[in-house]
Request: fold
Amino acid sequence: MRGINTRCLHLKENEAKAEHFGAISYPIYQSATYEHPSVGQSTGYDYSRLQNPTREHLEKVMASLEGGTDAFALTSGMAAISLLMELFKPGDHIIAEADLYGGSIRLFDNVSKKNGISFTSLNCSKDDIEAAIKENTAAIYVETPTNPMINVSDIAKISDIAKKHSLILIVDNTFLSPYFQNPLSLGADVVIHSGTKFLGGHNDTLAGFIVTNNQTIQEKLRFLIKTTGACLSPFDSWLMLRGIKTLGVRMERAQQNALKLAEWLKTQTIVEKVFYPGLKEHPGYEIMKKQARGFGSMITFNVQTKEQALKILEKVKLIKFAESLGGVETLITYPTTQTHADVPEETRLRNGITSCTLRLSVGIEDIEDLISELSQIFGEL
Reply:
């Protein structure tokens, strides 16, 4: 198989073809519907909710990057998770990572439970998953590393448990992207991405992806995306294709910055703890070395007081105080009032998210400039 950087740019099946007038940038097919040659015949495209050439090309790229047989491009990461939940029926039970992105928890608590699906929340990096399995358990849902506390779960180990009990293993791979980690190759059945993040990489569009190598799941999802209709638009599909072309160089540069910044943060008096899986003392360091090709660029850290955390958010300029992650710009986020605002306080605290917790999505700026800004701010506190 070709290297991942090459696969970010080229679909092998399209080589030596003179399609699209030789366009190097895959065209945007901005059409809602398509003409039929005659009754019972089709060009392969009938209506863009069913499929669109630009979206189809993107989905093939994503399937290639994750080693799946099919991929599904949706309007956001939450749209992708919502579609995935349609695989389950009332009465089903799902074991879910406790330290999930707050939007995932909000969906499960307020929509999925209303639809008759029950959940058991665990720290999947250390709790006994097998002990939580019930007769009606249908799936295990994990993020690794988690958002925002950077817990690392052993995907292959959890896959063994899932296969033993005939469960679907779903892995949210947003934090590492397919450039650094491929859960399907480790035994997962489904991979979820918020494409808005590292895959798009420029903070300019929303997208979500589901990738699978399970034919039964693939067929169900193809029917469901057609039926529910939250498919990605042609233009946003093109933006995602454009972003993916530079995925590798962006991930490498951001990771390089993140490791230097994490090491620097450890030396700062006001910083009580740094959570970054590329630090050798991180409990998930060895697992990451085994199952991933890198450590990513997400850092979470705790300062001594809430007041310090709020002052940092007020004073940053080069680093942007904003939600989201995975773009070329470095962003700092306050999980308590942003990404996890709808998560009950008791749950946040149990997961380790306090009023002193800050999350960094490290970008591709010169690391000296990032450290200089934080050094000046820390010195004023």
Q: What stands out?
A: The longest strand covers residues 137-143. The longest helix spans residues 247-266.
